[in-house]
């Protein structure tokens, strides 16, 4: 028969983590400390498997497991010389959760279990301390009532605070035994009122109720949310730890505390933590009283401090990682209640990993597996000062689309952003952003949108620029006409106007009213450089490039270690003030000659852009995608034109002047608005599409208007030849978007190769280059062997490949995803982490088929998945040559790739453990 209940010391937290899977992190740590003969109150662990059995058995524990628990309880009673429920010498226990992965505060705990109206008298007599006994009993009733009986903690707090007020007590510790007895009377009456039953007096009923409640807490909303945040599986369950109580609230010689063997915020090697005398563990966590720093423990009890420091130092060496520990001092004697690997910030994780290598505790391979790649974001962006976050009003939480802190005054249009940013930092608030907003986005400190997802325009562009962004914050109602934004926060409607201060946390999605302080991060520290150097050793030849459209972004990418540009989106270059008129003239042209005339004016501008990118990436490849978006994106919105035409007959002169200025670049004047606007609308309607993402865009544009591809190819090769002449090592890679057939690829490749030869002949100089394609349609993946006859490289545009594979609109998917995630229909957002079962299979198929045709085919990924760790690991396993991501995710991708390589060497998929 399988074993389901383990007395402490039956299992060990061995290297392969098997006992952690069975006992959970807390149980494995307690077992290991018992084996090391440390002062740990005895107890037993009900395994994580029982949690799943409990749910499968309609929220009940089978009789054979119940019998195992009773046997373990009997052994615990023998060890303690006490008995649960005994009115003469009662055993009291704590009941705590403990999953394989640390989930601090997410599940439930109950202390002092075993107390009732009779056993409390025995505790009073044994301790000779009535206040202590009744303090324990009131705590137990409250915790059991809240956790097991599901009575609001607020209801209990109201009774407790009422008694404090009646007794004129400022602190909990000022209440007398008689006061606490009155609290208990109130608590029991509350239980009777809320449940229709008296508070349970049978200790075994209490234990079973607490055990089952801890199992149920595995599926409470906060635990589910935490697992989603940290990608912890839903099916691993939690263990239940039943442990003999020790009491930190027995008097002035007793205390309780928590600590870390190193500072979890900075990584500094200092003894770190807090304690409270005459208290139980919940008091430290709840903040009811202000704890003392652990350094003061040495004054309070030097021997306990020495012993605690010695034990925790030994535990760190044993586990070879920072330990998060809990302890209680009862009548001057130290007891260890928990040890586990401690949570830490990104900067702390890097520092600890590097310093532990220097201390010979771990090797370099282990060091790079210790840091969550996502945490490296914290080393790159300014963050909101925690004190500011607590002092400001939190308005809502949206999607953490682009990390970092942003503080500024609100503006509602891109033009206003440009103007206002000259005087003060601005936050651009929009329902959604469009490519035409790029100039305003460039100067804004942060972006807030009420629509869109993690791969929406705002999100993708902001990550590329390193601008903090909170997207899809649907709680906000943005009224761009009135220049105000409204939200209901804490039950009150709050309206903010242009010029009001707003603070965004792009790492958490939180939005605050007011002006927060920020703290700057230093991404170039010696410790980080050492750490990333080790990561690159393991990463080997697997490349990490950056998505960058302008030289400034390319320079940032190189600073973070990018080995080239994996995606330059040329359309972003056309939205600049000096270029958009020529682009629009080209679109409005009715013949090829007029189009070529407009393109000729864009040519030197594109050439200059590309030269800047080549210079910034000296010695590394630069992938340049030819024009991709549909042409209507460069023109005024159809709806806006229709409104202006409808208003025009009734408009006064000032309004007409405003319209003329608005459409000046299209030849509008006050006197000709009646003809210019309808003509413009006619052209916009010609270009209008019901589904533009699947419309006239990508290679389809280049085939319809080959002069566009010709101009861009000429700009690329003229720039390449010019910078090569100056000694820059240049490797252009021209990428044709949205191909689905060999003939499409051949059509565009012929133009690029023809123009390259023309430029090389004219300039009497050649450069090496490649012509490839962006795989973003399922058909392209399936016929990759055909397309590879012309394409010299593939780059997977996984944003669109996900969109076309799933049939999701990435800008509207927010209306669907929350329900799908909540109902468990899908495990994670496929636009955030690559869908390896579906989209990933297309990536595999295309890679394999493409290389059957062209064995040296270079294959990469340039969607936003290129900076997401699990997606990077998949790309490494699939045999891609590189990933490309936004500049500020390059460090993350480098580390994720290194972990994939290190994990492969260890024979562990992914390598890193949580």
Describe this structure in words.
The chain is an alpha/beta fold. 45% of the residues lie in helices and 17% in strands. The chain is built from 35 helices and 33 strands. The strands form seven sheets. An eight-stranded mixed sheet has the order 14-24-23-16-17-18-19-15. Strands 26-27-28-29-30-31-32-33 form an eight-stranded parallel barrel, surrounded by six helices. α5 runs parallel beside α7 and α6 packs antiparallel against α7. The protein starts with a strand and ends in an 8-residue tail after the last helix.
Keywords:
914 residues; eight-stranded mixed beta sheet; eight-stranded parallel barrel; 17% strand; disordered C terminus
Task: Give a short summary of the structure.
This protein has 914 residues and is of the alpha/beta class. 45% of the residues lie in helices and 17% in strands.
Would you spell out the secondary-structure blueprint of this structure?
Blueprint: E1 5-7, H1 18-35, E2 43-46, H2 48-56, H3 63-80, E3 83-84, E4 90-91, E5 93-99, E6 109-113, H4 119-127, H5 130-147, H6 153-167, H7 177-195, H8 203-217, H9 221-230, E7 238-244, E8 255-260, E9 272-277, H10 281-286, E10 292-293, H11 297-300, H12 302-319, E11 323-330, E12 333-341, H13 346-358, H14 364-369, E13 383-384, H15 386-391, E14 393-397, E15 399-402, E16 405-411, H16 414-420, E17 426-430, H17 438-443, E18 446-449, H18 457-465, E19 469-471, E20 477-479, E21 484-489, E22 492-497, E23 501-505, E24 510-513, E25 518-519, H19 526-539, E26 543-547, H20 551-559, E27 565-569, H21 580-588, H22 592-616, E28 621-625, H23 638-647, H24 653-662, H25 673-687, H26 699-704, H27 706-725, E29 731-736, H28 742-763, E30 770-775, H29 778-782, H30 784-787, E31 793-796, H31 798-806, H32 817-822, H33 839-853, E32 858-861, H34 869-878, E33 882-885, H35 890-906
Parallel strand pairs: 3-4, 16-17, 17-18, 18-19, 26-27, 26-33, 27-28, 28-29, 29-30, 30-31, 31-32, 32-33
Antiparallel strand pairs: 1-2, 2-7, 5-6, 5-7, 8-9, 8-11, 9-10, 11-12, 13-25, 14-24, 15-19, 16-23, 20-21, 21-22, 23-24
Helix pairs in contact: 4-5, 5-7, 6-7, 13-19, 19-35, 20-22, 21-22, 22-27, 23-25, 27-28, 34-35
């Amino acid at each position: 028969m399988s074993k389901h209940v383990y007395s402490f010391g039956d299992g060990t937290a061995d290297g392969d983590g098997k006992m952690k899977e069975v006992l959970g992190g807390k149980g494995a740590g307690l077992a290991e400390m018992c084996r090391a003969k440390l002062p740990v109150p005895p107890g037993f662990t009900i395994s994580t498997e029982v949690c799943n059995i409990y749910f499968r058995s309609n929220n009940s524990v089978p009789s054979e497991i119940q019998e195992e628990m009773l046997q373990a309880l009997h052994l615990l009673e023998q060890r303690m010389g006490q008995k649960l429920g005994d009115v003469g010498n009662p055993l009291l226990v704590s009941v705590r959760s403990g999953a394989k992965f640390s989930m601090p505060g997410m599940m439930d705990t109950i202390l002092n279990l075993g107390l009732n109206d009779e056993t409390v008298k025995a505790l009073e007599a044994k301790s000779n301390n009535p206040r202590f006994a009744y303090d324990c009993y009131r705590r137990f009733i409250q915790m059991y009532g809240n956790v097991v009986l599901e009575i609001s903690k607020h209801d209990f707090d109201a009774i407790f605070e009422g008694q404090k007020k009646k007794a004129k007590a400022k602190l909990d510790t000022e209440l007398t035994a008689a006061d606490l007895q009155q609290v208990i009377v109130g608590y029991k009456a509350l239980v009777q009122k809320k449940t229709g039953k008296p508070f349970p007096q049978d200790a075994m009923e209490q234990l079973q109720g607490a055990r089952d409640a801890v199992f149920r807490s595995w599926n409470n909303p906060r635990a589910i949310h935490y697992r989603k945040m940290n990608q912890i599986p839903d099916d691993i369950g939690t263990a239940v730890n039943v442990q003999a109580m020790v009491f930190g609230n027995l008097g002035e010689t007793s205390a309780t505390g928590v600590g870390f063997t190193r500072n979890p915020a900075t990584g500094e090697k200092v003894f770190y933590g807090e304690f409270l005398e005459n208290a139980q563990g919940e008091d430290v966590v709840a903040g009811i009283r202000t704890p003392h720093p652990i350094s003061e423990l040495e004054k309070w009890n030097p021997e306990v401090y020495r012993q605690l420091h010695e034990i925790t130092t030994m535990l760190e060496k044993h586990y070879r990682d920072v330990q998060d520990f809990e302890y209680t001092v009862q009548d001057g004697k130290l007891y260890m209640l928990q040890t586990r690997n401690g949570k830490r910030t990104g900067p702390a994780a890097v520092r600890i990993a590097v310093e532990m290598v220097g201390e010979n505790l771990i090797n370099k391979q282990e060091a790079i597996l210790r840091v969550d790649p996502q945490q490296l974001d914290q080393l790159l962006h300014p963050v909101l000062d925690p004190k500011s976050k607590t002092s400001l009003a939190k308005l809502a939480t949206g999607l953490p689309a682009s990390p970092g802190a942003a503080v500024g005054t609100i503006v509602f249009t891109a033009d206003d952003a440009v103007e206002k940013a000259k005087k003060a930092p601005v936050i651009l608030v929009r329902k959604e952003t469009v490519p035409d907003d790029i100039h305003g986005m460039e100067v804004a400190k942060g972006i807030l949108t009420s629509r869109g997802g993690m791969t929406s325009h705002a999100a993708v562009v902001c990550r590329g620029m390193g601008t903090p962004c909170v997207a899809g914050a649907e709680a906000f109602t943005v009224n761009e006409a009135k220049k105000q934004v409204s939200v209901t926060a804490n039950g009150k409607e709050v309206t903010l106007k242009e010029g009001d201060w707003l603070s965004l946390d792009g790492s958490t999605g939180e939005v605050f009213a007011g002006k927060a302080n920020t703290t700057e991060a230093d991404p170039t520290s010696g410790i980080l450089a050492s750490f990333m150097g080790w990561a690159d050793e393991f990463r080997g030849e697997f490349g990490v490039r950056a998505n960058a459209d302008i030289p400034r972004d390319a320079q940032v990418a190189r600073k973070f270690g990018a080995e080239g540009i994996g995606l330059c989106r040329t359309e972003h270059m056309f939205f600049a003030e000096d270029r958009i008129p020529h682009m629009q003239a080209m679109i409005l042209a009715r013949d090829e000659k007029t189009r070529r005339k407009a393109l000729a004016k864009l040519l030197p501008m594109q050439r200059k852009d590309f030269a800047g990118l080549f210079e910034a990436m000296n010695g590394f490849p630069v992938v340049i995608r030819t024009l991709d978006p549909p042409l209507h994106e460069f023109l005024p919105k159809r709806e806006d034109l229709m409104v202006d035409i409808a208003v025009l007959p009734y408009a006064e002169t000032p309004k007409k002047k405003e319209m003329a200025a608005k459409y000046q670049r299209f030849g509008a004047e006050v006197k000709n608005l009646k003809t210019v606007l309808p003509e413009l609308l006619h052209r916009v309607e010609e270009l209008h599409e019901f589904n533009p993402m699947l419309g006239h865009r990508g290679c389809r544009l280049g085939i319809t208007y080959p002069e566009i591809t010709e101009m861009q190819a000429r700009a690329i090769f003229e720039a390449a030849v010019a910078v090569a002449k100056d000694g820059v090592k240049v490797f252009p890679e021209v990428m044709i978007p949205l191909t689905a057939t060999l003939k499409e690829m051949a059509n565009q490749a012929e133009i690029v190769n023809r123009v390259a030869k023309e430029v090389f002949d004219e300039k009497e100089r050649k450069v090496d280059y490649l012509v490839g394609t962006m795989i973003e349609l399922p058909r392209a993946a399936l016929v990759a062997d055909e397309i590879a006859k012309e394409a010299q490289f593939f780059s997977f545009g996984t944003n669109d490949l996900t969109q076309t594979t799933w049939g999701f609109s990435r800008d509207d998917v927010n209306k669907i995803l929350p329900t799908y995630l909540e109902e468990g229909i899908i495990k994670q957002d496929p636009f955030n982490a690559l869908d390896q079962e579906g989209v990933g299979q297309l990536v595999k198929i295309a890679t394999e088929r493409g290389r059957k045709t062209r064995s040296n085919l270079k294959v990469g990924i340039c969607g936003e998945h290129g900076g997401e760790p699990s997606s990077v690991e998949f790309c490494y396993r699939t045999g891609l040559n590189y990933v490309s991501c936004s500049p500020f995710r390059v460090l993350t991708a480098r580390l994720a790739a290194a972990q994939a390589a290190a994990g492969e060497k260890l024979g562990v998929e992914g390598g890193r453990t949580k």
